[in-house]
Amino acid sequence: MKTSLSSPLPMAADAVSARPRYLRYWRAMLLLVPMLVLLALFCLAPMGWVLAHSVQGEHGLSLEHFRVILGSPFYLQAFDNSLRISLYSTVIALLITLLGAASLRRVDGPLKNAVIALTNMTSNLSGVPLAFAFIILIGTNGALTLLLRQWGWLQDFHLYSRNGLILLYTYFQLPLGLLLLYPALDALDDHWQEAAALLGASHWAYWRHIALPVLAPALLGTFILLLANAMGAYATAFALTSGNFNLVTVRIASLVSGNIDLEPNLAAALSVVLVALLALVAAVNQWLLKRSYHAR
Predict the structure, then answer these.
(1) What does pTM read for this prediction?
(2) Does residue 152 carry a pLDDT above 60?
């Protein structure tokens, strides 16, 4: 007479699967604790402080700081300048990086690796060093400025103006945009363009009806990241203009540092309005994504 012993492995597997999900992955969850602590200390806590102080008036809770911002032409001009510079630089950088990423995808060998390495390096060149480099090159007495004026190719360009800031912002947006868009182009199959050409579609028709709809989520996501990157830029604009150009980040810094008057609560309200604008843009982005090619 034979006796068969049932394997304990199915019983153990059933016991493990019967546990709650948070108990089955408790070791992995423990590894997240340091990251959650850092997130709470350096993201959630400062944001909570900003929200709390934005509604803190002289006599308790109040929305007076928001009324001051919305009723002040000076602060409205700061938002207008920041939005215009950010939008222009983002759109220009997005178009350039889309062309660059599509071209880079066609290149093989050491040249592609060199361009990617250079892009990674220049993505860290921002702030004061970038502003100083532009001042040396195309400032009022910059090397390229004097050369182009001597040749008669440059007349009225002024680096320390809105157009100069757009040029500067576009420059430091290019590496980030290229790094974000280059992997997204892997979603395109070269056979699609060949098939479209066989069916009589032109190169523009292929990009309009096939490539751009497929790349729409990546393009919209890159647009949001570049816009947020430009809206939050401070060191580059301050180093270039010495704080004389009216931008939201410059105004927040001046209210916190107390160059004229120390008003951290008003600076907190400006920060909340800035975050609300970016949140609105992100919400529009999500709405567009739901109507894009991938949502159908």
Answers:
(1) 0.80
(2) yes
